[in-house]
């Protein structure tokens, strides 16, 4: 069964600092992996997705993630945090082996950005 | 493109009543939509897969008679919480897969799942 684990329920950084949100996956098939962001009382916005085309995936708002099969990881990074990045971030893996099907989500990581 | 809306955005109801939540794909058609629920400070849990023109597929542990799903058109799926109780209070989020329409012709949009803004249900 496919699953994801997000390490750290809370991450706090200073504005301008590197953002690193960790996600490890488990999948019996080549995975489709996603990062979503959720602002309070809102739905999810897709940041980026891995579909095996390239191991380094660039997303919106300056975020990127690198797929590392040997480490079963898909960590999300951003070189310089902005106050507007404060939100909750979810890593997800496709359950059915497609890029558009059912998803299993990690527990989420709340990112706080300090001035 | 690829906008998904939900209505209402929040609803408060009395215990024992039924509540209908709508999920619409605004500029694309979606043969498949998904319904998730999110309890406070928790992650999203898939409830069911809604298929246009056929019965929904429910995840293990989700009561299909309590959470009625109807996907009557390519742009609309509804979730009805029947005989709601306080434990049904949650944030319900739908998502839709871009299968056709203008958004499907935009690079990166096709075969991707897009989420609605969610509906906050509070049952008193």
Brief summary of the model shown:
The complex is a heterodimer of chains A (about 120) and B (about 120). Chain A has about 120 residues and is mainly β.
Structural description of this entry:
The complex is a heterodimer of chains A (115) and B (124). Chain A is mainly β and 115 residues long. Chain A has strands at residues 3-7, 10-14, 19-26, 33-38, 44-50, 56-58, 64-68, 73-78, 87-94, 103-105, 109-114. In chain A, the strands form two sheets. In chain A, strands 2, 4, 5, 9, 10 and 11 form a six-stranded mixed sheet that branches. Chain B is globular and about 40 Å long. Chain A binds chain B through residues 36, 41-46, 49, 90, 95, 98-108, and chain B through 4, 6, 32, 34, 42-46, 49, 91, 93, 95, 97-98, 111-118, 120.
Output the keywords.
heterodimer; A: 115 residues; mainly beta; six-stranded mixed beta sheet; five-stranded antiparallel beta sheet; 0% helix; B: 124 residues; four-stranded antiparallel beta sheet; 49% strand
List SSEs of chain B in N-to-C order: EEEEEEEEEEE
Runs of chain B in which pLDDT lies below 50 for 5 or more consecutive residues are none
What structural category characterises the helix and strand content of chain B? mainly beta
The count of strands of chain B amounts to 11
> How far is the N terminus from the C terminus of chain A?
41 Å
Q: What's the number of helices of chain B?
A: 0
Poorly predicted regions of chain A: none
Task: Give the helix/strand layout.
The complex is a heterodimer of chains A (115) and B (124).
Chain A: E1 3-7, E2 10-14, E3 19-26, E4 33-38, E5 44-50, E6 56-58, E7 64-68, E8 73-78, E9 87-94, E10 103-105, E11 109-114
Parallel strand pairs in A: 2-11
Antiparallel strand pairs in A: 1-3, 3-8, 4-5, 4-9, 6-7, 7-8, 9-10, 9-11
Chain B: E1 4-7, E2 10-13, E3 19-25, E4 32-38, E5 44-51, E6 57-58, E7 67-73, E8 76-81, E9 90-97, E10 113-115, E11 119-123
Parallel strand pairs in B: 2-11
Antiparallel strand pairs in B: 1-3, 3-8, 4-5, 4-9, 5-6, 7-8, 9-10, 9-11
